[in-house]
Write a structure and sequence with these properties.
The protein is α+β, with helices and mostly antiparallel strands. Helix content is 15%, strand content 14%. It has a domain of 26 residues. The longest helix has 12 residues.
Length: 106
C-alpha cells in the first residue's frame, strides 16, 4: 500500500498515512483535530544512459587542445601570387575526363 502525505488546514502539520488507492482518508489531524488535505509531491526524475552529462557531448581532450592552439596562434593571411600576363588572357583549360569514361580517343 502506498504512503501519502496529508497537511492540516489549520496547523499546517504534515502527516504520513498509508492506505490503498481507492480508500479516502477522512480522519482528523492528530495534532489539532483539523481537516487534513492531501499533499501532491513531484515525482523524482532519473536520467539514465548517455547524453545527460556535460562530459558526454564535449570533444575529447586532444581535440580540445588542438582547437585551443589553433585559436591561440595569430593568423596571417596567405600571400597572393601574381599571375603572368600571358596566362591572364588565356581561357581556362577544360577539366580532365574521369578514368572510367566511355568515350575513346580515335
Amino acid at each position: 500500500m502506498p504512503l501519502y502525505d496529508y497537511q492540516c488546514a489549520t496547523c499546517h502539520a504534515v502527516t504520513e498515512v498509508r492506505h490503498g488507492f481507492g480508500e479516502v482518508h477522512e480522519a482528523p489531524c492528530p495534532s489539532c483535530g483539523g481537516k487534513l488535505m492531501r499533499v501532491f509531491n513531484p515525482a523524482p526524475i532519473l536520467f539514465r544512459g548517455s547524453g545527460f552529462y556535460a562530459t558526454d557531448s564535449r570533444a575529447s581532450a586532444s581535440q580540445a587542445s588542438a582547437a585551443a592552439e589553433k585559436t591561440a596562434a595569430p593568423q596571417t593571411p596567405a600571400p597572393t601570387e601574381a599571375k603572368p600576363a600571358a596566362a591572364q588572357g588565356q581561357p581556362a583549360a577544360s577539366p580532365a575526363k574521369p578514368a572510367g569514361s566511355s568515350e575513346s580517343a580515335a
